[in-house]
């Protein structure tokens, strides 16, 4: 089943994000935070967006405040920070929980995928990355410390781009 089926989430600007719009694209879904030691990864995520968007790819940022309160801002504050500090142009969703009883349905589907080290289940920290193929299947999971433009992420993206 596609991660886009029956999953409702709002955009950071409000209103439905309609995940079905990403059918036919490769999508790197990342739980993000503005006040984290890994926050500079926004720059690498934006480079991926700029490099691959024309080839059927997008990054989808999903703000989360579950890790030491590192995403405390409002939707407006998050959007302003991302735009002003990192020039983020990729889409962002509303702030959600990625772990626990309130885990968003999107993450219920994502966390069953294991990363290269065999970790599945709960998100470990901000900037954990999931690559979703054009048909909506999760094809890779990357640790929070794996840089967005690392060779393994880039290779996985290139292999997942639509024909």
TrEMBL record:
This protein's record includes keyword Oxidoreductase: yes
| Domain of life, per lineage | Bacteria
Is this entry keyworded Cell membrane? no
Keywords from the UniProt entry: Oxidoreductase, Peroxidase
Among the GO molecular function terms of this UniProt record, one is: peroxidase activity
Q: Which GO terms describe its biological process?
A: cellular response to oxidative stress
Where does the record place the catalytic residues?
36
Q: Which family does it belong to?
A: Belongs to the glutathione peroxidase family.
Q: What protein does this entry describe? A: Glutathione peroxidase
Annotated source species = Streptomyces aurantiacus JA 4570
